[in-house]
Write a structure and sequence with these properties.
elongated; about 0% strand; mainly alpha
C-alpha cells in the first residue's frame, strides 16, 4: 500500500512532506503499484515536492511495473514546469524510454494534446521513429495543434502506424 509520505507527495502537501521526511520517512519506498514518491509528485505536477524529494537523492529515473518514468507521468498530465525541471536535471536519459506497451513520452504528450510538452520533447531531441503513432493519436483525439506541429516536422501524413492505422482513419474515429 501507499505510505503517508506517498499520499502527501501525490496530493502536493509540501509541509506534510517536509515533516515526514524530517521524521525519517523513506522517500525511496515503492508502492504495491510500483510507484515512487518522486513519480507521484511529478505525475501530479507538484514541483515544490519534486524539488524537495530530489534533495533527498531519490532515483529520478525509476520506472513502475508498466515502465512509466517520472517524465512519462509529467508528460501524460501536461505539467510543463515539471517537464522543464526534469530536463534540467537529467531526464534527457529518459526521453526514449518506452513503457512496456511501447508508449514514449512523445507519444503520450501527443495523445493527450499537450502541445507545449510536444515542443519541449522535440527540442530535446525526441526520437522521431514513432512519428506516425504520435500523429495518429493526436488525430484520433482531435488535437489539431499537435498534428500541425508534427506535420511541420515533416511527418508523412499518408503513412500508417506499425499496425496499419492511418491518420485519416484515426481522425475518422473522432
Amino acid at each position: 500500500g501507499d505510505t503517508p509520505l506517498m499520499a502527501a507527495c501525490e496530493a502536493g502537501h509540501s509541509p506534510i512532506v517536509e515533516r515526514l521526511l524530517a521524521r525519517g520517512a523513506n522517500p525511496n519506498v515503492i508502492s504495491d503499484r510500483g510507484k515512487t514518491c518522486f513519480y507521484l509528485a511529478c505525475r501530479n505536477g507538484h514541483l515544490d515536492v519534486v524539488q524537495r524529494l530530489y534533495a533527498e537523492k531519490v532515483d529520478t529515473h525509476a520506472e513502475d511495473k508498466d515502465g512509466q518514468t517520472p517524465l512519462i507521468g509529467a508528460c501524460d498530465k501536461g505539467h510543463v514546469p515539471v517537464v522543464d525541471w526534469l530536463f534540467e536535471h537529467g531526464a534527457k536519459a529518459d526521453l526514449e524510454r518506452a513503457m512496456k506497451n511501447g508508449v514514449t513520452p512523445l507519444i503520450i504528450a501527443s495523445r493527450e494534446g499537450h502541445l507545449t510538452i510536444v515542443e519541449r520533447l522535440l527540442a530535446q531531441g525526441a526520437n522521431r521513429d514513432k512519428d506516425q503513432e504520435c500523429c495518429y493519436w493526436a488525430c484520433q483525439r482531435g488535437h489539431l495543434g499537435v498534428v500541425q506541429r508534427l506535420y511541420a516536422e515533416k511527418v508523412d501524413i499518408h503513412a500508417a502506424t506499425k499496425d496499419g492505422r492511418t491518420l485519416l482513419w484515426g481522425a475518422g474515429l473522432r
